[in-house]
């Protein structure tokens, strides 16, 4: 097919060649891409989010799911700060598609940036509504009244409790009032507001006591049975036939169900389900026997010519030699959330109800509606707390499987992926290969920066896109792959280009998307360049940063001060490494790692990070996100690689896939810088500098650039 | 099978003898504390304490537990008063997603119950096998030290 007709095909699907603008409405499961774009929430949406209910409790409906990133407590703080009340007056509910207007998914570290200010506006509007109602009831002017801890006061005595105000119908907010509300959030930091206070995650008491249901697996329905999908052993494999005669005698076995390529099994108990699954006799065709080395070959850029997607090409390249020419490899890696995908489906009264830990409840709703021929309103999705998201819960998987089995067996079904399913049927961080060539003069001025790379897909993932959309998007640059690849450093000439490669393994969004790998490559290269030129890595970075990146400069200087960079040891088995980066033009971070070489390998002895995500709503939760990102950096640098062999992902459990453990994690020092009056995002920021800070410390020990992740042997 | 579950006498029906303890706790007794993470003992999310020892409940057939005392996360607190481990976990604001924290708390509880003066190496040895993907390890370490101090005072 010629380019032109492919463009037309894309257009017909509602996609533009320049990027994604609209989702293909009403498309079926296989045709909807991951992270379907949706409009931002509006003040009129936000009007539905907050209310004062009978009993005097405030209800805040979140549009964003909770996966440990702290958005729930953060939004409660914003609302409480705006209303001028205590946090514990506000009940927050996680997304329920029957209760809130359509909203975006919880991705891209955007939840606070996009919904925080709207929650503040809605809360400010509710504040006015409460004062107006109180004024009416009391026959006093609004200006004489104020909101206090338990109700409305005239500054001397409490006159009306929230409970009294809320007798009758709930006190709601009008859309037009939200639009004109002027929240105080950004100006008021007097220490009395809930905003700016360090507070643990929402529902922490339930987490440490187990006293009530939080996660999808805590949902138990009457008559519910347990289901699993019988999957081919290899990627691209196909099941020819299944003999369940041995399985069917297991007490608790309910049945085997086949519908097209789909094969599922159901039992009344989970132990019975696992036993029956083991006893199935499966005849299958295997997919191509790819191994890690085959994927590496597909991505190799060492001798490649021009890349298909040019992100930036500016300045006069000149003809001088390059000072460095390095080829860097990032392997396939797993999300490895401790909670496996879990969903419960129940068909009732012509509708479908789903409980699941998803990053995108409305994507689940629309996908299931299309799959089962239901109206969108007939499908209700309850978003449960997620036991670790990291990008993995952006597709519709266990939800569709549970609903299919529920329909086939006629009972409510819980599908919980096995750990093997998570590794072998999930999607993963794409591997990538980067060639960076660069030259600098003796003062550290960068003359030429030339970065080309190949990666598996991120947004246009085969985990959610069928062959049609894969083909249609095959010449559109995958925006997830390119994320964060434009260097913050000024150079006389800069060239950045990439190709996304359709790999024989499912890849997709993983914490930081392309920014994690691209920053590791860039921050490795700038260090290598400094080393060749005999320059200090900090001084080289500071000199190359243009004035518009003053917030990046600020965190670099901050972290250098924290770690005592200028007094660091200049030789030996214990050295420091430095790196920095910008996430989505909104958040800034710089990290320093102190790494020791031991007989057992490299050990991170200390980590420092300076971080700027603008106004900090909850410093404790922001710090937690930074700590998490730094630990993911340890994983990327020293531990994680997901092997493929014989056409299948090799690991089946955590014995086969190393993630950082307690003794891998050192003391961590963090400083928060608030470089803007509005909040941005912290969920994926520090990962852009954590990995390279560690590998640059390794390079300082060995004198050799780390070219391949993870660093394994000392 | 007769067991003591969080100090209460309970019976596990005979037809669940082959069912892993984790599923009996979650699906028969309706407990939320112990979590399924891997099913093969590689992550520790399902940890419970059996006769004083931290065990991976996904690996234990219910039939092997006759006469044993099982303690789960739900059994740590005495009424409304949270156990020092639960208090410390809140004071250090340990959880992010929270899913693994059952295993972290129960493993640390069993460690300090057996060795009240456990040091950094003991803690690392016990806790390295309990995975946390969010990256709360530094806080877990602080919370164990805090709980240890609280329990020392209570003694």
Features:
heterodimer; A: 714 residues; alpha+beta; Aldehyde Oxidoreductase, domain 4; seven-stranded mixed beta sheet; 29% helix; disordered N terminus; B: 155 residues; Ubiquitin-like (UB roll); DNA polymerase, domain 1; 2 domains; five-stranded mixed beta sheet; 5 strands; 12% strand; Isoquinoline 1-oxidoreductase (chain A); Ald_Oxase/Xan_DH_a/b (chain A); TAT_signal (chain A); membrane (chain A)
Please give a structural write-up.
The complex is a heterodimer of chains A (714) and B (155). By secondary structure, chain A is of the alpha+beta class. Chain A has 3 domains: 43-206, Aldehyde oxidase/xanthine dehydrogenase, molybdopterin binding domain (Aldehyde Oxidoreductase, domain 4), CATH 3.30.365.10; 216-287 and 341-416, Aldehyde Oxidoreductase, domain 4; 292-334 and 427-702, 2-Layer Sandwich (Aldehyde Oxidoreductase, domain 4), CATH 3.30.365. Chain A is 29% helix and 23% strand. Chain A has 19 helices and 26 strands. Chain A has a 7-stranded mixed β-sheet, sandwiched between helices. In chain A, strands 12-20-19-18-13 form a 5-stranded mixed β-sheet, with helices on one face. In chain A, strand 4 and strand 5 (151-153) form a beta hairpin. The longest helix of chain A is centred in the first third of the chain and has 28 residues, at 111-138. Chain A is globular, with a radius of gyration of 27 Å. Helices cover 36% and strands 12% of the residues of chain B. Chain B has 2 domains: 2-75, Roll (Ubiquitin-like (UB roll)), CATH 3.10.20.30; 84-154, [2Fe-2S]-binding domain (DNA polymerase, domain 1), CATH 1.10.150.120. In chain B, a hairpin with a 2-residue loop joins strand 1 (2-5) and strand 2. The model of chain B has no long low-confidence stretch (mean pLDDT 97). Chain B contains 5 helices and 5 strands; from the N terminus they run E-E-H-E-E-E-H-H-H-H. Chain B has 155 residues and is α+β, with helices and mostly antiparallel strands. Chains A and B meet through helix 7, helix 8 and helix 18 of A and helix 1, helix 2, helix 3, helix 4 and helix 5 of B.
């Amino acid at each position: 097919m010629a380019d032109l007709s492919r463009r037309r095909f894309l257009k017909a699907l509602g996609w533009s060649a320049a990027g994604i603008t609209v989702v293909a409405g009403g498309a079926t499961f296989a045709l909807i891409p991951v992270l379907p774009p949706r409009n931002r929430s509006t003040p009129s949406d936000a009007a539905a989010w907050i209310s004062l209910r009978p009993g005097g409790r405030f209800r805040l409906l979140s549009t964003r799911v909770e996966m440990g990133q702290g958005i729930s407590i953060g939004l409660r703080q914003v609302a409480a700060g705006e209303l001028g009340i205590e946090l514990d007056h506000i009940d927050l509910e996680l997304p329920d598609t029957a209760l809130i207007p359509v909203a975006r998914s919880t991705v891209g570290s955007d939840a606070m940036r996009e919904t925080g200010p709207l929650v503040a506006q809605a809360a400010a509007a509710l504040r006015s509504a409460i004062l107006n109602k109180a004024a009416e009831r009391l026959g006093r002017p609004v200006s004489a009244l104020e909101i206090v801890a338990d109700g409305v006061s005239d500054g001397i005595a409490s006159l009306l409790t929230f409970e009294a105000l809320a007798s009758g119908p709930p006190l709601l907010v009008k859309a037009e009032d939200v639009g004109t509300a002027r929240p105080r959030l950004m100006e008021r930091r007097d220490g009395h507001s809930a905003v700016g206070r360090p507070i643990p995650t929402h529902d922490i008491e339930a987490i440490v006591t187990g006293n009530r249901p939080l996660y999808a697996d805590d949902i138990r329905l009457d008559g519910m049975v347990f289901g699993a999908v019988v999957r081919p052993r290899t990627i691209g494999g196909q099941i020819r036939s299944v003999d369940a005669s041995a399985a069917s005698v297991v007490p608790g076995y309910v049945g085997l169900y086949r519908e097209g390529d789909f094969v599922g099994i159901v039992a009344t108990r989970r132990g019975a389900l696992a036993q029956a699954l083991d006893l199935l006799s499966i005849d299958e065709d295997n997919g191509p026997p790819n191994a890690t080395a085959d994927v590496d070959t597909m991505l190799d850029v060492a001798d490649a010519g021009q890349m298909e997607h040019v992100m930036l090409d500016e300045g006069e390249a000149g003809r001088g030699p390059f000072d460095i020419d390095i080829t860097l490899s990032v392997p396939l890696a797993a999300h490895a959330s401790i909670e496996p995908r879990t969903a419960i489906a129940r068909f009732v009264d012509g509708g479908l109800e789903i409980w699941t830990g998803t990053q995108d409840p409305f994507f689940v709703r629309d996908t299931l509606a299309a799959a089962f021929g239901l109206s969108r309103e007939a499908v209700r999705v309850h978003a449960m707390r997620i036991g670790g998201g990291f990008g993995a819960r952006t597709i519709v998987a266990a939800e569709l499987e549970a609903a299919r089995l529920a329909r086939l067996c006629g009972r409510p079904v819980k599908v919980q992926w096995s750990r093997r399913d998570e590794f072998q049927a999930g999607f993963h961080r794409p591997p990538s290969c980067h060639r960076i060539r660069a030259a600098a003069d003796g003062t550290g001025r960068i003359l030429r920066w030339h970065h080309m790379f190949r990666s598996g897909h991120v947004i246009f993932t085969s985990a959610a896109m069928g062959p049609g959309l894969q083909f249609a998007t095959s010449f559109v640059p995958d925006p997830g792959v390119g994320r964060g690849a434009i260097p913050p450093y000024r150079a006389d000439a800069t060239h950045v280009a990439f190709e996304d490669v359709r790999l024989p393994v499912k890849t997709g969004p993983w914490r930081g998307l392309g920014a994690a790998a691209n920053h590791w490559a860039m921050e490795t290269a700038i260090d290598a360049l400094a080393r060749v030129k005999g320059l200090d890595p900090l001084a080289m970075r500071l000199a190359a940063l243009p004035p518009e990146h003053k917030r990046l400069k600020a965190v670099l200087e901050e972290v250098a001060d924290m770690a005592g960079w200028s007094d660091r040891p200049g030789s030996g088995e214990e050295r420091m490494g430095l790196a920095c980066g910008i996430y989505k033009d909104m958040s800034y971070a710089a990290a320093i790692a102190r790494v020791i070489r031991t007989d057992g390998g490299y050990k991170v002895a200390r980590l420092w990070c300076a971080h700027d995500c603008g106004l900090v709503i909850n410093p404790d939760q922001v710090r937690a996100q930074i700590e998490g990102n730094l630990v993911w950096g340890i994983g990327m640098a020293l531990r994680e690689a997901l092997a493929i062999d014989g056409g299948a992902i090799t690991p089946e459990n955590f014995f086969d896939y190393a993630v950082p453990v307690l003794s891998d994690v050192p003391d961590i020092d963090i400083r928060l810088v608030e470089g803007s009056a509005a909040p941005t995002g912290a969920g994926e920021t520090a990962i852009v500098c954590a990995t390279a800070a560690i590998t640059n410390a390794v390079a300082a020990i060995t004198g050799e650039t780390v070219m391949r992740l993870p660093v394994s042997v000392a | 099978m007769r067991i003591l579950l969080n100090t209460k006498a309970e019976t596990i029906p005979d037809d669940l003898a082959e069912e892993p303890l984790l599923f009996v706790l979650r699906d028969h007794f309706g407990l939320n504390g112990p979590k399924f993470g891997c099913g093969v003992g590689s992550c520790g999310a399902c940890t419970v304490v059996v006769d004083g020892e931290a065990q991976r409940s996904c690996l234990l057939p219910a039939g092997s537990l006759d006469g044993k005392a099982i303690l789960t996360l739900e059994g740590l607190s005495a009424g409304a008063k949270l156990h020092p481990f639960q208090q410390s976990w809140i004071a250090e604001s340990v959880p992010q997603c929270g899913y693994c924290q059952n295993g972290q708390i129960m493993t640390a509880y069993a460690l300090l119950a057996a060795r009240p003066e456990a040091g950094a190496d003991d803690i690392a040895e016990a806790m390295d096998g309990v995975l946390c993907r969010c990256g709360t390890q530094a806080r877990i370490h602080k919370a164990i030290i805090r709980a240890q101090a609280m329990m020392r005072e209570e003694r």
